[in-house]
Write a structure and sequence with these properties.
Blueprint (H helix, E strand, L loop, with lengths): L3 H14 L7 H24 L9 H16 L6 H18 L4 E6 L4 E5 L4 H9 L2 H14 L9 H26 L9 H22 L4 H23 L1
Antiparallel strand pairs: 1-2
Helix pairs in contact: 2-8, 2-9, 3-7, 4-5, 5-8, 6-7
Length: about 240
Amino acid sequence: MITASAAKLARRELRRRLPRRGLPWYWAGPGAFLCFLVASWMGASLWRLPKDYLVSTLWGRCFLGGIGAGILLFPLWALTPLYVFGHELTHWLAAKATFRRTGALRLGFSRGAVEIEGTSGVVALAPYVCPLFLLLSGGMAAFVSLLPLSFPPWLPLVTATWLGLCLAYHWVLTLLALRRGQKDLEIWGRFLSYPFILAGNLAALFLTAALCSPRPCQLWEVPWGLLKEGLHMWEKFLA
């Protein structure tokens, strides 16, 4: 026979071991506000980019063409096993980056799982923010470009198209996954998770757009210039 006090202690221990569903409002509210600020900052930075720096070059047109083709193609041909692999691998990499112990990695055709010690919103939401295949492809392309080799003139155009396809794949599959509903969002709660995903994707888009430019250092000045303008306006408001 279980006494009332013993049953109460058992329920309390069970709640302690289960992952928390959503942060308290005093954490989720400021966190969502901060994510909206970052999303607004990145959105304004994208708007301030030179409007013709991609369209005016053949490389940029191939990149935009890859994005457009991917947006049309991947809703019909989702390549779900590939997405499951990238999704779980991103969880695993984020766990390793935050010094969390990991266990078995299980992959299937339509779903997967990775064992991670403890719960973390950053680890849970990493696949919805980080375009893994774009980062891997871009890093490989950057490494190959440093090699003292001669490349055919069509290779940069194919690379640009491929990078656009990778970015579109991340966007489309992320939207499809969120539409089906994901338990990963329960750790921080949807109130904070959606602004975090929006801010992270806008930041990734600006990073990709800057790296696609022939003058990336010049484009890095755009967000910092906006930040200085915002701080200057805030100083005037307080004066």
